[in-house]
Amino acid sequence: MNRVLMTLTIAIMSAVGVGLFVLADRREVVAEAPKSQTPVAPFPYLVEEFAIDSPDQAVIVGGTLTIPEGNGPFPAIALLSVAGPNDRDQSFAGHKGFMVLADRLTRAGFAVARYDDRGVGASTGDYFAASWRDLADDAVAVAEYLRADPRIDGARIFYAGMSQGAAIGAMAATHADAAGVVLMSAPGLQGEDALRQQLETTISLLNIDGQRAARFRAFFDEYVAIVGGDPDARETRDRLVAFLQGPGRALIPPYRFLPRDAAGLADILLDEWYQSNLRFEPAAAYGGLTTPVLAIGGGKDVVAPPNRHLRAIEAILEKQGRVKLSVQEFPNLNHLLMPADSGLPTEYAKLSTSFSEDAIAMIESWLTSNAHGSPDGPDSSTRSD
Hints:
This protein has helices at residues 2-13, 97-107, 132-147, 164-176, 191-205, 210-227, 234-245, 262-269, 272-278, 282-286, 309-320, 357-371, and strands at 45-53, 60-68, 74-80, 91-92, 95-96, 111-115, 152-162, 180-184, 293-298, 325-330, 381-384. It starts with a helix and ends with a strand. By secondary structure, the chain is of the alpha/beta class.
């Protein structure tokens, strides 16, 4: 029972509220052989490091800017990673998905900025103490940095975010005068609803039924009732610590950056980042968009299934009616847009392709069309499944 419980709760707890899996460890990185898709120098473009202040000057954001050779000014894209403290390449198990995407887009004529999350690599600060608004402000600062570069066309700066990074990009776009947003495997359900969806998906995948399923649902309800309380109240923390020391002990995911003790884990669950996950409101994140949007997902995504999340985002954007929207679902891709068999996160490290070539081609085509003008009107919508 404990092993099944651990499997279940790892799936639903690794990023409460939006079903995003944390990939990188900010303290310890295990070196693994690079995948064949990973770009290798020399590159036919410029590669520069940057370090900028966050808008409140509380942290330094460090990253890599790749710029095509030749005459500019070039359109630019800022990449935003999945949930958790990830490096600029979104590295794990030999995969460097964002390095692959940045390489292809730079070869296609775009400047691309990718950066370390707070507390990782060249970026300072505490990731778990940052709200989603703080992380969106970091993305705004990156756009302002790009706009100040004479080699870059400030009117053609896009965001491309994956999973949590997609929501962060949408939030930033409304403050950064972005030219458009690419939403990859984006969360489309309210925080607690998304968490409950993950619970039900995992119960189904593990073929749990009857009293066992009812027990898991009751266990989930107890957890949400505790962690959704006042995060600053001593009573909330005490209840959470007791819960994690008792029946909730199996909820601690085996990620190296998470503390093993109940008190340390409770501190993270009640801090800004986790609470932003839990209280995420998709209508607020996407409803303010007015620029073109490409929303894509994978049919084998078991973390944020497109039939729930992608459809919900599509409904939000179509309702507000101010966005030129394109929607694309790739049937054989997982949450990280990798060609997959089962789509389960346990499979990620075994896969040979870090980023689907079809997804890259779709993103490049959409960015090129929108960076250089499109015949479609601002209220047009296209979708392909």
